[in-house]
Specification:
By secondary structure, the protein is of the alpha/beta class. It has eleven helices and eight strands. Strands 5-4-6-7-8 form a five-stranded parallel β-sheet, with helices on both faces. Strand 4, helix 3 and strand 5 form a beta-alpha-beta unit.
Length: 331
């Protein structure tokens, strides 16, 4: 793969060039303003194109080195686009209210994530039946509240290596925290915003739905390009070899579990299981797990062994319970 291609025409059609009313401008954005039309500032796309390309290159390079990208967009029109883009490229996102200290107080945030995982386990297992209806409702509400704020970062496992921000005015706390921790920031900066402190400034409209969708799509594709480069750098091109490469087969699993060489028909969406992200789903696939019924048949010890191999042993029993439920629904 290569960095995603885009043209100035695409930016024009998405409305990237429309700024805010002239009286609402931030003078620090003057170098990026082409002119004024009907009292609306017009962004200079001749500068936006190379600066957006530079930001996409930074995203791709960060992911290629094994880094994490955090998408931040809490305004209404950005919420769905940010979440979809982050999930598509196996990265992380915050699309509800930014909790103060999400980066600078990661220890406390980690405790909240641990609580969210515990609630997921309780509510998805038979343990929930030991609670009264009112208690279950209270736990579900607490779980939903935590999931809105932390659901997109619960599998991040640490601080991000770069954050991508849609609206620098609305996400000013996130940007300040990133600056304090020296985390690079790539951001869409409108004519009413301050570009100071932004590592990769991308001048453009941060309100139009089509523009936001375009930004998110390009950044997601840049991250996927980084993943592709990382995989390519980790080995040789087997397809170009004149002689077949001797491949060392993995030793049989001590648990007795035998995975499949590939999915039987259409693979199931394993991301429906509690706590399973795109990255965890790939680890399942590497172990030969593609279907709910494979997990539904596991005993406790085998499930725990597989959980340890993918890095989430505490979720093993919850996966089995959820897989059984999903298998029953399919039947």
């Amino acid at each position: 793969m290569a960095l995603p291609d885009f043209t100035m025409r695409q930016l024009l059609e998405a409305g990237v060039h429309f700024g805010h009313q002239a009286h609402r401008w931030n003078p620090k954005m003057a170098p990026f303003i082409f002119g004024t039309r009907n009292n609306i500032h017009i962004v200079d796309l001749a500068q936006t194109v190379p600066m957006l390309h530079q930001a996409l290159q930074a995203v791709s390079d960060t992911v290629a080195k094994g880094g994490r990208i955090l998408f931040v967009g809490t305004k209404r029109q950005a919420q769905d686009g940010v979440a979809d883009a982050a999930k598509r490229c196996a990265q992380y996102f915050v699309n509800s209210r930014w909790l103060g200290g999400t980066l600078t107080n990661w220890k406390t945030i980690s405790a909240s994530i641990k609580r969210l995982r515990h609630l997921d386990d309780v509510l998805s297992s038979g343990e929930a039946n030991s609670y009264t209806k009112k208690e279950r409702l209270t736990l579900q509400r607490e779980r939903d509240k935590l999931d809105r704020s932390l659901g997109g970062i619960k599998d991040m496992g640490g601080l991000p290596d770069l954050i991508f921000v849609i609206d620098t005015n609305k996400e000013d706390i996130a940007i300040q925290e990133a600056q304090r921790l020296n985390i690079p920031v790539a951001a869409i900066v409108d004519t009413n915003s301050d570009p100071k402190g932004i590592t990769y400034v991308v001048p453009g409209n941060d309100d139009a739905g089509r523009a936001i969708s375009l930004y998110c799509d390009l950044v997601a594709r840049a991250a996927i390009d980084g993943i592709s480069r990382a995989q390519g750098d980790s080995g040789i091109d087997v397809g170009a070899s004149a002689e077949p490469v001797a491949e060392e087969l993995p030793a049989p699993s001590s648990s007795g579990f035998q995975g499949l060489a590939g999915p039987r028909g259409t693979a199931d969406d394993l991301k429906k299981l509690p706590g399973v992200s795109g990255a965890i789903e790939k680890k399942f696939n590497d172990l030969g797990i593609f279907h709910y019924w494979q997990l539904a048949e596991l005993d406790h010890d085998t499930a725990l062994t597989i959980g340890e191999e993918v890095g989430l042993p505490s979720r093993a029993d919850a996966w089995v319970a959820k897989a059984k439920a999903l298998t029953a629904e399919a039947e």
